Design the sequence.
């Protein structure tokens, strides 16, 4: 039967347009060593490794677990490699948790990364064809449909873009530090895919993120507070079929419901203290608030508009700056899971949500068809009553 | 003594595979759908009865980032499913599914491995596995490194060229009874040795013929397995290990990671009637037999093995299927499946399968 596990170590690199000074090995090792240091353990204490990244074609290295095994200290041990499109970072965290929860491995080091500067993400996101529409081109029509259905005013997207960049100013690891970000700047930035302006889109980043996940009996070995993994869920649906609702996505709602049921959450907005949602384009904040049953249908944009999702709101979202401020694709989902853990461990620094005890980490991928989510808490059995 | 499954034990309750096609003139998803339909039909269950699905494949083979996304169409994902994917051979997907079922809340999982290597030059693709800074620029692709490994084996006195040719001759003879094989038939060691070198001391026939194909397995926790199957095959051990990427840091004549995985999986805890080994170069069988501690009492690659058909990304999972089939049929009672990844057996997975008690 499943046994509890917790995040006891977190490591991140500085996210940046180019990390030319580091090889791929150096990049993953920087995050891995920081996670091990946080957990107060060494490579020798790790029983298994789980790595994740978006397509191998982004850097041109096939099955990189093979060439990275040495840098990750995995020689002589199991190393496992996950790839579930944009959701991969969160999927990798979940796979790592499964290794521990299964009872077979006590301590797992999980690392995700992307070195976007080595390749061309828009080419890859267009299925390896040139002249493709990229991710924004896929999502923009769905965003327009969300706006039509919900009657959301056009400034909602700008608000999210500003809020996440202002949060990023408090996060030293964030790629974008736009000191003078403003609504005016966002709406005056070039239109990329109507209604998405340049400043409503995520950057291309190099970077890696890592976590140490360990079993209940090993938690006390690490000096810093654990983030207990209360539950996780994944759901997938087809990328397209007649009648598919790409706004209110069944797999996204099923995933959230399965997660809330597992954890015992009946009122997500009240019982979850903050969320790190995968928001690569501004409008996905209100869309996921609704799509993951945190807000009623058509009400998500009002949470944004009222400031509920700001750092001092009642449901803060992406306090770290989110994907809009740092996007090493393969790691971006893990960063959401890891920042949720940071909040409940009380280690989020200047973007700490006061008293955060329960936090949600989330990622999605493909044609908004892959979902991976987890909930972490400062307590193994929090009182949700 | 037959294995007595406990509540938390996991069994293979169904297997399916396509032929190893030199070239399959349709999309990968069709091969997957064939396997999935066979599995579900044989088990008499519906898609929603499968609690977790996980697949292994390689985008690079089709030259299309996110190629695995369209494979979902062959596995079924409406209503939405709990699903994942590894960019590894399907055998590693089995590893994760086996762990996932041990959490206890889900009782049936489906595992798929698939690959379509015919549109690409697999040798060029797998060259890109090499460290991109210092190894890949040397042109040290997996076939070249295999030649170096075979040479080291001969120089160490652990094998002769005739021994390596013997692996090929025996594999092809065995494949004669395997309808899924790509090549088969009687061939003498002398005639093989008369062929020219490719990557000396290896010859072209020492290298597995790359194929298009898919394979799939249905696994279940004990109670559900006994409901759904008359002859479940129990997974009594499963482990995988990697070793250094840098050939100069390894003893190429041994497979240390296989030894570790075999110990972890408990290979030596009982007799091994049958072993299916993921060899992509003939000499690897000699290294693996030694690392797994197999003697002449074990039938090695009775299907002919990958030297007679290598459906890349399904090849390792197919080895496990070949062992499971033999235990299901009563031909064997305990066996070892092996999967490998990387050049010169860098990464190895070992699974022990057993028949259950009455």
Sequence:
């Amino acid at each position: 039967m499943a046994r509890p596990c917790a995040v006891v170590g977190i490591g991140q690199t500085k996210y940046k347009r180019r990390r030319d000074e580091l090889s791929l090995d150096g990049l993953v090792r920087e995050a891995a060593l920081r996670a091990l240091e946080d957990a107060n353990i060494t490579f020798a204490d790790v029983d298994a490794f789980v790595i994740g990244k978006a397509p191998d074609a982004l850097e041109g290295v096939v099955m990189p677990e093979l060439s990275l095994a040495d840098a990750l200290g995995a020689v002589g041990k199991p190393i496992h490699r996950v790839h579930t499109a944009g959701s991969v970072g969160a999927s990798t965290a979940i796979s790592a948790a499964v290794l521990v929860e299964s009872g077979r491995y006590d301590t797992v080091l999980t690392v995700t990364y992307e070195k976007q500067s080595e390749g061309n993400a828009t080419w890859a996101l267009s299925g390896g064809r040139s002249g493709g529409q990229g991710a924004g081109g896929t999502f923009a029509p769905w965003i327009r449909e969300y706006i039509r259905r919900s009657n959301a005013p056009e400034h909602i997207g700008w608000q999210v873009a500003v809020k996440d960049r202002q949060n990023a100013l408090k996060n030293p690891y964030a790629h974008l530090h736009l000191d003078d970000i403003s609504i005016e700047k966002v709406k005056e930035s070039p239109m990329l895919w109507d209604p998405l302006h340049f400043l409503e889109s995520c950057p291309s980043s190099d970077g890696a993120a890592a976590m140490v996940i360990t079993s209940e009996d090993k938690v006390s070995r690490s000096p810093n507070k654990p983030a207990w993994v209360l539950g996780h869920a994944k759901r997938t649906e087809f990328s397209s079929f007649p009648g598919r609702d790409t706004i209110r996505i069944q797999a996204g709602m099923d995933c959230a419901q399965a997660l809330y049921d597992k954890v015992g959450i009946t009122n997500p907005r009240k019982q979850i203290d903050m969320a790190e949602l995968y928001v690569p384009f501004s409008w996905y904040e209100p869309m996921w608030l609704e799509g993951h049953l945190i807000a009623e249908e058509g009400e998500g944009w009002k949470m944004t508009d009222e400031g509920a999702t700001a750092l001092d709101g009642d449901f803060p979202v992406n306090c770290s700056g989110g994907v809009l401020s740092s996007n090493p694709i393969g790691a971006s989902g893990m960063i959401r899971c890891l920042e949720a853990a940071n909040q409940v461990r009380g280690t989020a620094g200047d973007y700490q949500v006061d008293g955060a005890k329960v936090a949600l980490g989330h990622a999605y991928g493909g044609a908004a068809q892959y979902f991976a989510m987890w909930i972490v808490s400062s307590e193994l059995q929090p009182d949700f009553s | 003594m037959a294995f007595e499954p406990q509540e938390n034990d996991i069994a293979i309750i169904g297997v399916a595979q396509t032929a190893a096609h030199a070239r399959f003139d349709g999309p990968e998803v069709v091969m997957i759908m064939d396997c999935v339909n066979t599995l579900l039909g044989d088990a008499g269950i519906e898609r929603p009865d499968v609690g977790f699905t996980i697949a292994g494949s390689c985008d690079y083979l089709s030259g299309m980032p996110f190629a695995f996304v369209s494979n979902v169409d062959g596995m079924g994902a409406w209503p939405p499913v709990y699903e994942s994917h590894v960019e590894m051979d399907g055998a590693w997907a089995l590893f994760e599914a086996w762990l996932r079922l041990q959490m206890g809340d889900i009782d049936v999982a489906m595992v798929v491995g698939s690959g379509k290597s015919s549109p690409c030059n697999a040798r060029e693709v797998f060259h890109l596995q090499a460290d991109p800074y210092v190894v890949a620029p040397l042109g040290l692709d997996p076939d070249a490194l295999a030649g170096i490994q075979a040479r080291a084996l001969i120089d160490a006195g652990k094998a002769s060229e005739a021994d390596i040719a013997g692996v090929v001759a025996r594999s092809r003879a065995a494949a004669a009874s395997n309808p899924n094989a790509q090549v088969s038939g009687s061939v003498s060691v002398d005639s093989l040795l008369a062929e020219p070198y490719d990557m000396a001391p290896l010859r072209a026939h020492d290298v597995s013929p790359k194929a298009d194909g898919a394979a799939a397995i249905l696994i279940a926790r004990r109670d559900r397995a006994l409901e759904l199957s008359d002859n479940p095959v129990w997974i009594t051990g499963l482990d995988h290990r990697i070793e250094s990427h840098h050939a100069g840091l390894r003893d190429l004549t041994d497979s240390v990671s296989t030894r570790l995985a075999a110990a972890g999986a408990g290979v030596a805890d009982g007799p091994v009637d049958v072993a299916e080994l993921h060899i992509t170069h003939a000499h690897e069988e000699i290294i693996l037999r030694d690392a797994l501690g197999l003697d002449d009492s074990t039938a090695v690659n009775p299907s002919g093995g990958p030297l007679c058909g290598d459906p890349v990304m399904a090849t390792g999972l197919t080895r496990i299927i070949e062992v499971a089939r033999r235990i299901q049929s009563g031909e064997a009672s305990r066996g070892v499946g092996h999967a490998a990844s990387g050049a010169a057996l860098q990464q190895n997975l070992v699974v022990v399968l057993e028949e259950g008690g009455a």
Remarks:
- The radius of gyration of chain B is 19 Å.
- The longest strand of chain B covers residues 210-221.
- The CA atoms of residues 145 and 182 of chain B lie 24 Å apart.
- Chain B has two domains: 10-121+210-233, 136-207+236-355.
